[in-house]
Description:
Layout lengths: L2 H11 L5 H12 L7 H14 L3 E5 L5 H8 L5 E6 L2 H13 L7 E5 L2 H4 L8 E6 L6 H11 E10 L15 H15 L3 E6 L5 E6 L3
Parallel strand pairs: 1-2, 1-4, 2-3, 4-5
Antiparallel strand pairs: 5-7, 6-7
The structure holds S-adenosylmethionine.
Organism: Leucobacter soli
EC number: 2.1.1.-
GO molecular function: O-methyltransferase activity; S-adenosylmethionine-dependent methyltransferase activity
Amino acid sequence: MSRLERNWQYAEQYPTETDAMVRARRLSLELGIEPVSRSVAAQLGGLVAATGARTICEIGTGVGVSGLALLRYAPEATLTSIEIESEHLRQARTVFSEAGVANARLRLIEGDAGQVLPRLNLEAYDLVVIDADPEHLLSYVEHALQIVRPGGTIAVPGAFAHGRVTDPAARDIIAQHLRDLLTTVGDSPAIAPVLSPAGDGLLMLTRLQV
Ligand SMILES: C[S@@+](CC[C@H](N)C(=O)[O-])C[C@H]1O[C@@H](n2cnc3c(N)ncnc32)[C@H](O)[C@@H]1O
């Protein structure tokens, strides 16, 4: 194992999670739903804590691992989370309930993000997390830039597409979309981009107040 791999593995194993997060992660893996990794969960929770985010929107609830991380350090925050699979949402409701998250802090929307995002209020969210349907990522980022407030952040776990983005031989559409996105935001005067190697890559785009 190389030094960089050791560092990555150490960072992945470092975060401690609540019992509810551990249970949700186990359930997610049992159901074949890929949750955010431990270090990505920690970075999302840390981002909320650092920025004081109160209004959070997420695409891809899964069974709620990322949702629990987003709400972990922010008792005042509310989470709007969009999920296309009713069974995933049903499991997520149980996960949030067993974790003691009050219903008033949650708006769980069953539907296709492509249909739901245009209905959300403009500039209403401090943080938008996109963790679903990578084929439509570029469109989701465009919508997210509309609903996030100036100074707010869009977070994209899975930014390396299971390592394909960094593999020059990988030419599939999702890897290409992600490379296009990384190039576009890297040059944008309106966005501060940060690419973390946590998990499978975590891209964080802060909408500048220009
Ligand atoms: C990678 S999993 C999300 C994991 C979750 N963020 C977590 O960490 O626990 C992606 C989820 O997005 C959902 N999904 C896929 N396509 C979608 C779409 N078009 N709109 C909304 N949700 C979608 C899937 O059903 C799946 O539950």
